[in-house]
C-alpha cells in the first residue's frame, strides 16, 4: 500500500533536481505542517505555488496524510478547488538521518488571511467580497458532500487560498475521506487522519469520537460545522481559539445569522445542508456577486440580456471594489470579448476599467484583446473600436499598428456604410503617426484619394482635413506630389462649401511646406478665385489665406534683400493653425439620418485631439449635399449664372494618377500638376484652339447683346477648362465681334486638362441646315406611275 501511494505521489517527478519549477520565498502562514512557497516555471517563468511537507522517515503520519492529500487533489477537479499541476517526493540523507519531503505544485495562490490584509476592504465592499468568496467555497464543499460523497473534515480559514483573480479555492485535502454511512457494521474512524484537525474546529460528535453517530448523520454534517467556523473567522478578523467563541455573533451580518446558527446546530441531523446555504438570496444577492455570476454564465444569456447588462456595467463597476474589478472582473470581460460571447457594448466597459490600470498593465491585460478584436467581422464591434480608438491608440506600438491593426481597419474605407467610412477616416488621425512610410504612401493615400470624391460631402470635407493633419508624417517627396493638388484641384473646386473651406484651412495649416514658387504660381491663383465665392464663410477664409501667403512671400523677399538666407516657407505674421485641424463635419449616423450640420472649424482656433474625438462620437451629420447647400445659401438662378460653379470633385482630375491598387511606384499620390506641365506640340495646340473656336451659325440674326450666358448646370458640368476669371472680366462690347485667332495661343493645362484626350475637331466647315436635308426631315415620297428616265446609250 505504501509503495502504491509513493508511486502515485512521485509519478510526475523523480526528485527535486528534476522538478521543473524554481522554489521562491515562503508565505508567513499555511495549513497544518505544510510550507507554502512562491515559485516559477523553469520553462516560461509563469507563477506557481509550491507546497512542501517534510518528515523524518517514510512512516511519519504527517507524510501519510500528505500523500492522501496529493492523491485527492490530483483526482478531484472543480472550479473552486485548487488546481493541481505537479508533485514529487524527495528523500535526502544527512549522515545517519534521512529526510523525506513531498512537493505539490499548483496554480499561483496565496493564503486567504494574507490576501484580506493586503486588500484592506472596509464596510460594504468587504461584506460584498466576503459574500462572493463564501459563495465559491460553499459550492466547493457542496460538490464534495453531495456529489462526491466525500468529507473534507477541516474547512476553516487556513484551508482557503486566493488566486491572482481573487477567486477563493479550497485545498488541504490531507483529512479528506469517503463518507461510509451505509456501512452500519463499521465502528472505526471514518476519517483516518482526523487527529490533524484542531479541537476548536471539531463538532461535538468528533470530539467524542462517536463514529456511529457520525455515520448516521448526513454527509454534510461535519463540513457544515466547518463552514460555520470559516464564517466566524472571516467576520471576527481572528482565528478561532476555542469552540465557545462561536457563540459570539456580533460581527455576523443579520441576513446570514439564521443560516450561521443552523450550520452550527448541536444536532448533526439538523445542520443546514451546504447546498441550501447557496439559496440564501438575501445575503448572496449583491452587485458584486450578481455581476460575477452573470459573467460566469454569459454563454447562457440571450442577446437582449447581454446588451442590457453591458450597457449598465460601466456604472456598476464604479461602485464595486476597484481591486476586485481590475483583478477579477476585467479578465473575465476581456476573455468574453476575445472569444465572442460578449457584445459590442462590453468594449466600452473594458476600456473604462482599463483606464484605471497603469500604462504597463494596460498593455499586458487589455491591449492584446483589443488588437484581436480588430479582426472581428462584427460591424458593431468595429464601430465601437473606431469610436474609442483615441483611448488606446497611443498605447499601441508602430509595428502592431502597421502589421496587425491597419490591414483590418483599412477595409472600412470601402465599406458600404457611410458612417463606418467616416469613422475609419477619423481613426487615421490616431493611427497614421504610427504607420510606416510604405503604408502611408502605398496604401493610405490611395484610400484617401477615393474618399475625396466620396458621395458624402462630409467625408470629402474631413478627408481634406485629415490630409492637413497628417502632412507632417509624409516624406518631402510625397508632400510635394500630393498636398497642393489635393487641396487645390479637388478641395477648392468642390461643390460643397465646407469642403472648399476645408481646403483653404488645410493650405494655411501646411503653409510652411511650400516654397515661394509654389505659393505664387499654384496656391494663390486658386485661392484668389474663392474671394468671390458664393459662400461668405469661404470668402472670409480665402481673404485670410491670401493675406497669409502674401505675407510669407513678402517676408522671404525682405530676407533676400537683406542678404539673409531665404526660407522656403517662412512663418506668417498671421496666426496659423495651432496643433491639429478640427473635424469640419460631425459624424454620419449609422442609419444615414440627417442631423444638424456643424460649421467648419477655422484655421485660427482648431480644437485639440480630444475635441476632435468628441465631435467624432457626437450624433451627427449631413446626408445629401444639395439639401445642405440649400441650408447654407438661398440664391436666385441669376446668382448662379453670374459665376460659374466649381467643377464636381468626381471628375478625373489626375489625383489618382499612379494611385491604383496593386502599384507601389513612386508616382503614388496626387501627381497631376494642374498648372505647370510640359509644353504641348504646335499641332496639338492648333487642335485645342479649333475646339475653342465657336461654331458658326449661318442663319443667326445680327446680335446686339453680349454673348449668351452659360447655365448653371452646364457650368457645373464643365471640367478644368472653366474660365475662373470670367466673373471679374469687363463686360463685352454691344456689337458682335469676330472671335480671336486662337491658333497662336497655347492653352495651359490649368485651363484645359482634358485636351490630351479630347476628340479632334471636324475637318470640314459646318454647312447651313437646308429644308428637307436636316436630320429630322422626312425623305421625299416616291411618285406613282410611269416615270421618264433619261438614259444615255453607249451604242448610240
TrEMBL record:
Q: Where is the composition biased (Polar residues)?
A: 683-709
InterPro entries tied to this protein:
ARM-like, ARM-type_fold, CIK-Related_Protein, HEAT_type_2, Kinase-like_dom_sf, Prot_kinase_dom
Q: State the residue spans of region: Disordered.
A: 617-796
Could you tell me which residues the HEAT repeats occupy? 523-561
Which interval of the chain is the signal sequence?
none
Annotated GO molecular function terms are:
ATP binding; protein kinase activity
Q: Which domain of life is it from?
A: Eukaryota
What Gene3D superfamilies does this protein map onto?
Answer: Leucine-rich Repeat Variant, Phosphorylase Kinase, domain 1, Transferase(Phosphotransferase) domain 1
Listed Low complexity bias regions: 754-770
This protein's name? Protein kinase domain-containing protein
Amino acid at each position: 500500500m505504501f509503495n502504491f501511494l509513493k508511486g502515485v505521489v512521485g509519478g510526475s517527478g523523480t526528485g527535486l533536481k528534476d522538478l521543473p519549477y524554481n522554489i521562491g520565498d515562503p508565505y508567513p502562514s499555511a495549513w497544518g505542517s505544510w510550507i507554502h512557497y512562491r515559485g516559477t516555471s523553469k520553462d516560461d517563468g509563469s507563477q506557481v505555488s509550491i507546497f512542501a511537507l517534510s518528515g523524518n522517515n517514510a512512516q511519519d503520519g504527517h507524510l501519510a496524510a500528505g500523500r492522501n492529500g496529493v492523491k485527492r487533489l490530483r483526482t478531484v477537479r472543480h472550479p473552486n478547488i485548487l488546481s493541481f499541476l505537479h508533485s514529487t517526493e524527495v528523500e535526502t540523507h544527512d549522515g545517519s538521518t534521512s529526510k523525506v519531503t513531498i512537493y505539490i505544485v499548483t496554480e499561483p495562490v496565496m493564503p486567504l488571511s494574507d490576501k484580506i490584509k493586503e486588500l484592506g476592504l472596509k464596510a460594504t465592499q468587504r461584506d460584498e467580497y466576503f459574500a462572493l468568496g463564501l459563495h465559491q467555497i460553499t459550492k466547493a464543499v457542496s460538490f464534495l458532500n453531495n456529489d462526491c460523497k466525500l468529507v473534507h473534515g477541516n474547512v476553516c480559514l487556513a484551508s482557503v487560498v486566493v488566486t491572482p483573480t481573487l477567486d477563493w479555492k479550497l485545498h488541504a485535502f490531507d483529512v479528506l475521506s469517503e463518507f461510509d454511512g451505509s456501512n452500519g457494521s463499521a465502528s472505526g474512524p471514518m476519517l483516518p487522519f482526523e487527529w490533524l484537525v484542531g479541537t476548536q474546529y471539531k463538532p461535538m460528535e468528533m470530539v467524542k469520537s462517536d463514529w456511529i453517530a457520525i455515520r448516521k448523520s448526513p454527509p454534510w454534517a461535519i463540513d457544515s460545522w466547518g463552514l460555520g467556523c470559516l464564517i466566524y473567522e472571516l467576520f471576527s478578523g481572528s482565528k478561532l481559539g476555542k469552540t465557545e467563541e462561536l457563540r459570539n455573533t456580533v460581527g455576523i451580518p443579520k441576513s446570514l445569522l439564521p443560516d450561521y446558527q443552523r450550520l452550527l446546530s448541536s444536532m448533526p441531523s439538523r445542520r443546514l445542508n451546504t447546498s441550501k446555504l447557496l439559496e440564501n438570496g438575501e445575503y448572496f444577492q449583491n452587485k458584486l456577486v450578481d455581476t460575477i455570476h452573470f459573467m460566469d454564465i454569459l454563454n447562457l444569456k440571450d442577446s437582449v440580456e447581454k446588451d442590457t447588462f453591458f450597457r449598465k456595467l460601466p456604472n456598476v463597476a464604479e461602485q464595486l471594489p476597484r481591486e476586485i474589478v481590475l483583478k477579477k472582473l476585467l479578465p473575465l470581460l476581456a476573455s468574453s470579448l476575445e472569444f465572442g460571447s460578449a457584445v459590442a457594448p462590453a468594449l466600452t466597459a473594458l476600456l473604462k476599467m482599463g483606464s484605471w490600470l497603469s500604462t504597463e498593465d494596460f498593455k499586458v491585460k487589455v491591449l492584446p484583446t483589443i488588437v484581436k478584436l480588430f479582426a472581428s467581422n462584427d460591424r458593431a464591434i468595429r464601430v465601437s473600436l473606431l469610436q474609442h480608438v483615441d483611448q488606446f491608440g497611443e498605447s499601441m506600438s508602430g509595428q502592431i499598428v502597421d502589421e496587425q491593426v491597419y490591414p483590418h481597419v483599412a477595409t472600412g474605407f470601402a465599406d458600404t456604410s457611410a458612417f463606418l467610412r467616416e469613422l475609419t477616416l477619423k481613426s487615421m488621425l490616431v493611427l497614421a503617426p504610427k504607420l510606416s512610410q510604405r503604408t502611408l504612401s502605398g496604401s493610405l493615400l490611395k484610400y484617401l484619394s477615393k474618399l475625396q470624391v466620396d458621395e458624402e460631402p462630409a467625408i470629402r470635407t474631413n478627408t481634406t482635413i485629415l490630409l492637413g493633419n497628417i502632412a507632417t508624417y509624409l516624406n518631402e517627396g510625397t508632400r510635394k506630389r500630393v498636398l497642393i493638388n489635393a487641396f487645390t484641384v479637388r478641395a477648392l473646386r468642390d461643390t460643397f462649401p465646407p469642403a472648399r473651406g476645408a481646403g483653404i484651412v488645410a493650405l494655411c495649416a501646411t503653409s510652411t511646406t511650400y516654397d515661394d514658387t509654389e505659393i505664387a504660381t499654384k496656391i494663390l491663383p486658386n485661392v484668389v478665385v474663392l474671394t468671390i465665392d458664393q459662400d461668405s464663410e469661404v470668402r472670409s477664409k480665402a481673404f485670410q489665406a491670401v493675406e497669409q501667403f502674401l505675407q510669407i512671400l513678402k517676408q522671404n523677399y525682405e530676407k533676400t534683400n537683406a542678404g539673409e538666407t531665404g526660407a522656403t516657407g517662412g512663418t506668417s505674421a498671421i496666426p496659423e493653425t495651432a496643433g491639429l485641424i478640427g473635424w469640419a463635419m460631425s459624424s454620419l449616423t449609422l442609419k444615414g439620418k440627417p442631423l444638424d450640420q456643424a460649421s467648419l472649424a477655422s484655421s485660427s482656433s482648431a480644437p485639440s485631439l480630444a475635441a476632435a474625438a468628441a465631435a467624432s462620437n457626437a450624433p451627427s451629420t449631413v446626408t445629401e449635399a444639395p439639401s445642405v447647400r440649400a441650408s447654407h445659401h438661398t440664391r436666385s438662378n441669376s446668382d448662379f449664372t453670374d459665376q460659374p460653379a466649381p467643377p464636381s470633385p468626381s471628375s478625373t482630375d489626375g489625383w489618382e494618377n499612379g494611385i491604383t491598387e496593386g502599384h507601389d511606384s513612386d508616382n503614388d499620390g496626387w501627381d497631376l500638376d494642374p498648372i505647370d506641365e510640359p509644353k504641348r506640340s504646335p499641332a496639338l495646340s492648333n487642335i485645342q484652339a479649333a475646339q475653342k473656336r465657336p461654331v458658326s451659325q449661318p442663319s443667326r440674326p445680327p446680335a446686339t447683346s453680349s454673348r449668351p450666358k452659360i447655365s448653371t448646370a452646364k457650368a457645373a458640368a464643365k471640367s478644368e477648362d472653366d474660365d475662373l476669371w470670367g466673373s471679374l472680366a469687363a463686360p463685352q462690347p454691344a456689337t458682335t465681334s469676330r472671335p480671336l485667332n486662337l491658333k497662336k495661343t497655347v492653352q495651359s493645362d490649368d485651363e484645359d486638362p482634358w485636351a490630351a484626350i479630347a476628340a479632334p475637331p471636324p475637318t470640314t466647315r459646318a454647312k447651313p441646315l437646308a429644308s428637307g436635308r436636316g436630320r429630322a426631315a422626312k425623305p421625299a415620297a416616291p411618285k406613282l406611275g410611269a416615270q421618264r428616265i433619261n438614259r444615255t446609250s453607249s451604242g448610240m
